Amino acid sequence: MGTIRVYYTSVTGSRQVKQKQAEVTRILDINKTKYELIDVSISEHLLQEMRAKAGNPNAVPPQIFNGDDYCGDFEMLYEATENEEVWKFLKMASIDKPAREEITV
After folding, report:
1. Fold (CATH) for 4-90
2. What's the CA gap between 48 and 42, in Å, rounded?
3. How far is Cα 45 from Cα 49, in angstroms, rounded to an integer?
């Protein structure tokens, strides 16, 4: 299992990008996932690296990887969260969590 890496930018004029980046880190924090932030605004090389790994020459932050394996972007993580499949999205083995208790009447 690799390290979860989130490519993001600390310099953006886009409120939408800022919100998506904040939501990605919030989701990862809630799931107690350790991750590394890589700021693509530091160098053009990091931006091009992110795009090459994502397989999209127009990819914008945030982009999420497990090691060098591409997991997806914000929308894909959000969908995985809604479907309770964050660990699958991150390509990680699920930690032992208690199953949801269902109340029947």
Report:
1. Glutaredoxin (3.40.30)
2. 12
3. 6
| Global pTM exceeds 0.70 | yes
Check: CB of residue 88 under 8 Å from CB of residue 80. Answer: yes
Please state, in angstroms and as integers, the Cα–Cα distance from residue 88 to each residue in 16, 42, 55, 95, following that order. Answer: 26, 30, 20, 11
Q: Which two tokens stand for residue 83?
A: 């479907």
The CA distance from 30 to 86, in Å, is: 11
Angle (deg, nearest 10), helices 15-30 and 74-82: 40
Cβ-based burial of 78 (10 A; exposed 0-12, middle 13-18, buried ≥19): middle
- Give the C-alpha separation, 98 to 96, whole Å: 7
- Summarize pLDDT for 52-94 with one digit per residue, the tens: 999 999 999 999 999 999 999 999 999 999 999 999 999 987 5
